[in-house]
Fold this sequence. Notes:
The complex is a heteropentamer of chains A (368), B (249), C (317), D (285) and E (233).
Chain A: E1 6-12, H1 19-35, E2 39-40, E3 43-51, H2 56-68, E4 73-76, H3 80-93, E5 97-99, E6 116-118, H4 123-137, E7 141-147, H5 150-165, E8 169-176, H6 184-192, E9 197-201, H7 204-216, H8 219-222, E10 224-227, H9 233-239, E11 247-250, H10 259-272, H11 278-297, H12 302-310, E12 313-317, E13 320-324, E14 331-332, E15 335-342, E16 350-358, H13 360-363
Parallel strand pairs in A: 1-3, 1-4, 4-5, 5-6, 7-8, 7-9, 9-10, 10-11
Antiparallel strand pairs in A: 2-3, 11-15, 12-13, 13-14, 15-16
Helix pairs in contact in A: 1-11, 2-3, 4-5, 7-9, 11-12
Chain B: E1 6-15, E2 18-28, E3 33-37, H1 44-52, E4 59-64, E5 67-68, H2 74-79, E6 82-84, H3 97-109, H4 123-135, H5 151-163, E7 169-173, H6 181-195, E8 199-203, H7 207-213, E9 216-221, E10 224-229, H8 231-236, H9 238-245
Parallel strand pairs in B: 3-8, 3-9, 6-7, 7-8
Antiparallel strand pairs in B: 1-2, 1-4, 4-5, 9-10
Helix pairs in contact in B: 3-4, 3-5
Chain E: E1 2-13, E2 16-27, E3 31-35, H1 42-50, E4 57-62, E5 65-66, H2 72-78, E6 80-83, H3 95-100, H4 113-119, H5 121-125, H6 136-149, E7 154-158, H7 166-181, E8 185-189, H8 194-199, E9 202-207, E10 210-216, H9 217-222, H10 224-231
Parallel strand pairs in E: 3-8, 3-9, 6-7, 7-8
Antiparallel strand pairs in E: 1-2, 1-4, 4-5, 9-10
The complex binds adenosine-5'-triphosphate (2 copies) and magnesium ion (2 copies).
Amino acid sequence: AEPADFHIAGILAFSGAYGIIGKDMRQGVELAIADRGGKVLGKPIRVSWEDDETKPQPAVQKATRLLAGGAQMIFGAVGSASTLALQSLADQRKVPLLVTISADDKITRVNGSRYTFRTSNTLGMEIRMSLEFAKVRGLKKIYGVAADYQATRDGWTMFQTEAEKLGIAIVGIDFAPLGNRDFSVIVDKMAKSDADGIAVFVTGNDAVTFLKQSGQVGLGRTKVQFGPVLQDETLAAAVGPAAVGVYSGVRYHFSYDSPANKTFVAAYRAKYGEFPSSFAGEAYDGISWWLDVVEATKSWDRERWVDAFAASTRENSLEGRKTMRACDHQAAQVGLWGVVTEGQAPLPPLTMKITNVFEPANLFDTCS
Amino acid sequence: MTGGALRCEDIQVAFGGLKAVAGVSFAFEPNRLYGLIGPNGAGKTTLMNALSGHATLSGGKVFLDDRDITRLPIHARTRAGLGRSFQITKIFAGMTVLENLELGAFAHRHRVQPFWLPAGRFPRVREDAEKVLEQVGLASLAHMPAENLSHGDQRALEVGLTLLSDPRVLLLDEPLAGVGHDRLEQAIGLIRRVVAGRTVLLIEHNMDVVMQVSDAIVVMVQGQLLASGSPDQVKANPAVRSAYLGEDA
Amino acid sequence: MTISSRLGQLIMAAVIAGMILVPLISRSEESLNLVSLILIWGLFAVGFDLIFGLAGMLSFGHAALFGAGGYALTLLMTKAGLGFMPALAGAGLAGAAFAFVLSILALRVSGLFFSLLTLALAQLAYILASTKLRAFTGGLDGLPGVPRPELFGLDFYDNRTFYYFLIVVFLVGLAVMALLRASPFGKALRAIQANAVRADQIGFNVQRLRQCAFMISGAYAGVAGALLASLMFYISPQMLHWTTSGDVLIMTLLGGKGTLLGPVLGVAVFELLKEELSQITQHWYGILGLIFILCTILLPSGIAGLFAGRRDKGDAR
Amino acid sequence: MSTIVIGLSLSFLLFLLAAGLTLIFGMLGVINFAHGALYMLGAYICYQIVQWTGSFWIGLALAPLVVAGLGAAMERLALKPVYDRDHVYQLLLTFGFILVIEEAVRLVWGLDYKQVPTPDLFSQPVALFGSQIPSYRLFIIVFGAVVSALLFLVIDKSRYGMVIRATSSDSDMAETLGINVSRVRTFVFALGSGLAALGGVVAAPLVPIELGMGFSVIIDCFVVVIIGGLGSIRGAIFAALLLGMARALGFTYAAEWVDLITFSLLIVTLLTRPAGLFSRKGRAA
Amino acid sequence: MTALVLKDCDVFYGKAQALHGASIDVADGEVVSLIGRNGAGKSTLLKAAIGLNPLARGQRLVGGVDASAMKPYELGRLGIAFVPENRRIFPNLTVEENLTIATVMGRTGPWTLKRVHQLFPRLEERRLSGGDTLSGGEQQMLAIGRGLLTNPKVLLLDEPTEGLAPLIVESLIEAIRMINAEGVAILLVEQNLRVPLKLAQRQFVIDNGRMVWSGTTGELQANRERIESLISV
Lengths: 368, 249, 317, 285, 233
Ligand SMILES: Nc1ncnc2c1ncn2[C@@H]1O[C@H](COP(=O)(O)OP(=O)(O)OP(=O)(O)O)[C@@H](O)[C@H]1O
Ligand SMILES: Nc1ncnc2c1ncn2[C@@H]1O[C@H](COP(=O)(O)OP(=O)(O)OP(=O)(O)O)[C@@H](O)[C@H]1O
Ligand SMILES: [Mg+2]
Ligand SMILES: [Mg+2]
């Protein structure tokens, strides 16, 4: 028997470290659902939103409950740790898990989870963008700071190896505890070094803290600060004027020039009165793609959805063409790179300007 | 039962610069009751703390029946037969008087506290407790939470808890302080009865009582022994009179 | 114990039993999950209260014991290839062993300083687990795929079967604890809380008793941690974070410390409130806070106090 | 050299964060878990004042006052009825405060980041010992030193301090000596809350202002309070200096070990001087 | 003029009634003593006088004015000083602070730190020690000194000689005489009957929370046997 509705378990962070992200993602998803008349396979779409407090345990707990109540898929989570935890649950229960924000490379890997798909960026591709940027910008000496966390440590190792291959010298690296609240000593060391580039492999609160404190000594005046996920409009607003001139990878941007994006941004602004954040954009993009594929199967068989999605390509995604790689369930896509600038109304006062668009070929390893 | 012999050699206890006990040596002979007197702050309680393990010694040794117990922890001294009461009452608040006493009996009867049977299944413990309850005159208050007792009744419970470990050497720190006028005779009687067959060290400021019950008296002043001897000898000692008793005593 | 408080105990037991058996009637998977959580945290809280409510030792290090159990089960099963039951026993042992190590340091002090030292030691363990011991713990990302039992040919990956398993473990744990608390050992712990100097003086080996209690409590925490990891199929150092210790403390206080069933009640109310409030309103967080505040002011000895005729005897000021 | 200056700024920042906690802890015997929430509230209110008036300094002056007022209300309404009970119940209470304060902040300011810019006066770095030292850091050092000196004089040295300490150990007896105990308690809790907010205001230009900010500092505060010895302002100053310097050195040579260094320091202190560096032992019998 | 009057007072601890319509009065410049066996309600009555035990029924008059609803700190400021039976020294204050805290409410009079030191020289020697390091007897001296330093109009003394060495007891008795001569009314609870017989003009006997006898010291001595039978078991 067909279920009464298409029930999605939406596990996002509405509180905790990433609490601010959940709301935007939810808005993106709700717009995507509204765009298709609220239905898929002829049944109404129902999303149960749950707050994982940016912690894996509640994420699993709440997802378990929703799946027990008959949810057909999971959408989320935000933090990579939560997502990784949800993966084993999804495999266990054989329900699809759609990821549109968590960036840890481990989430999509060859022979990884059959049921997990990611339509958004990986940290790996963002680190490649950082490398591409260092190359394009002609940086010679780089001082780095990275969070003492597996994914950023791995990312840094890769960055350092590749950079040294390109003849870029790494003059220093500090691993700061996650959630560090004082970077002044590290900033001082950086200021005293002869580096021309500062690679900042931290994100969220730590990124804001770093940039606020480096701003107090004017580090950005003499050196270029950049990082894979260092800034977006939300974080820049938290940093203030010191953010101007900082380069960062951008997951999605409302200024990206594509027909689909123009329509989306207009609709989003009309509905919510603000520009869509990268979280809203990625969420909208991912869920629209997924629902279209589900619709096309004309079936309620989850295995059919998974097979179909693994082989799909989206020509008209917000960021142009995206290809789902059957080998690791990661969507290959372009990489956006930008700089924080002062924006004119109606843009936010600090807004990202896209400076580079890197091609997927440069950002993804081939996989078989 | 016979009382144990307690001996201390050059005991010293210092708190910062203050020498509360400054080299006390004394041998307490078995089966005798010693009254320990001296001005306030002379170091009587501290000496007792040194004997029972509640003070850290900066020098000296304590022997119980020729066994060196200087480094023994408090509970082990109790098990070795050394009991004491405190000047500042220490009872188990939140429990009834009877429960207080039962705990004393459990501690005394069991080296490892049984965890496989409910506490109610130990009739002998209850008997022990009830016996002491009677002795210290608290029978009518058996089920009163101990912290609700009046001051004098708490003092009685304090002494009762000490008796349960059936010590061979008994250290009593002002057991009669706070005991009512009406009960004094009874309390002295109790002391006389329980001391039989034990070695007792009694601190007390009520001279009538001390002189009446002690076999010998030890006088402490400023952390040191000033005099010792029979009650009459001590009473007659001029140094003791001027330091402690006052002329009209 | 007065008649009315015995009646109160009975009512409380009935309430808890009713709550635990709800899934049998409702057949809803959601309540199944909720009750499973209550059983596991209930076991944790019951163990916690042995030292907190009885011996008066407020440990802020129980998160580490909880986590140690979880990791012990995970590693013993996935790396050492042990079966579930031996691994669960291993988890209990790990909790006790870790408690032993903590106790060597933390029991040198008492009162508030014990709390603070256990907090510091557990935080140290948390930091180590989340940074330096990544190879074993999976770092902050944790380890997914914690297994469940394979016994008597039953499918414990089925939540209902696992729930029955949890009931058995919980009841055994509860019964053992009931005996411990009523035994002279339990009385001695109460005595230590009431007056440690006196307890020592009448001949209780206070340090040893405290250490034993701490280790038993650690074993409960270890088993509970292992069961939680298994229920979630997931474990991370987050389990070792001091907030986990805070949670179990809050639950115990809410339910009523110093009683056998109070902590379980606290766990149940806490989990139910979280679950239900978050479905009703976005502002559940604040409402939960208000409820805590009101409970503190209005219920002097926790929710269990509603059932008891008078203050629990061990609950000394 | 620059490490020392930065270390000093870390120290005094730590002191400002922890002062209110140690005060309430030592003087009222209340472990105020809501300290972090009050700290956060201070930062948010400062943000709001800066939005309205454009001046950080007005924020610095007013936000602690507002929060102190709130602290007074919390004490009167919630804490007062439970003083006579086992202290642990206050944990549940202050835990409740955290949730309520966080909810209120979420309702008023929402989830997104706020920021308070560095005040103009201190926005430029100064060259010192071959480093560019943010002048705001120098401000923190001076301001922290002044606040710590004031607190030391008031709490450890003055009659008020004596009254407060007496109230904390035996309120009934203090009351018979003519001390209006409930007013003293309210005052102390208000002062402690105000100090928490002051910490939040001073930290505001340095860190992102968001809901989790209070949660993340509370452990640091505890470390300072414990090392210093509960309730001793002198101890807290000393502990903050020790810790600040240790962290500055840690960041210089081994950043990833900083947290471990902090906790090892704490554990060593507790093992050698269980009651903190500045503690005094009473008698057991 | 009466310094302090308690009239028909009932006091409860929880549900248990500890005072049943007890009355007592102390005139200006008078020493009144209250005797009774352990648990009779003596301390309870003193605590009711200073306001630590609320009156469920009855009246408290201070200097003729109704003070039934006053809080302890208001009574303290009016000049009632309390020396409790278990001393209640502030452990976290030094000896000197334990004394000076009595002066913060600002009552001045003949008693100064110096005079307390003269009375109890031991307290001067231990000036800077923590209150909780003192010996039992030293703590007792401190509690009395603290009470005196409030320069009271009425002094409530609960077993002040407990734990004091004989010499000190003598000087305390002298001191109480002197204080009394300076016009301070004193309500004294003592186990050691010797002291009240020496000092008090009038005696009250309490048993089971009820006043069972009152009269002058002379009357007490005349009826000693009857009264002892009233209060012994
Ligand atoms: N822990 C401590 N720290 C500092 N000083 C102490 C400590 N314990 C005792 N003292 C001091 O040592 C001295 C002796 O104290 P002790 O209690 O032994 O006197 P005591 O002879 O028993 O007097 P009392 O008859 O008044 O009970 C006192 O001056 C006391 O203040
Ligand atoms: N806090 C309390 N809670 C309950 N009952 C109490 C409390 N304090 C005293 N009582 C009871 O009140 C009665 C009177 O006690 P109170 O302390 O006034 O006696 P007292 O005459 O001072 O005796 P003592 O000579 O032993 O000091 C006693 O029966 C006692 O058990
Ligand atoms: Mg003494
Ligand atoms: Mg009394």
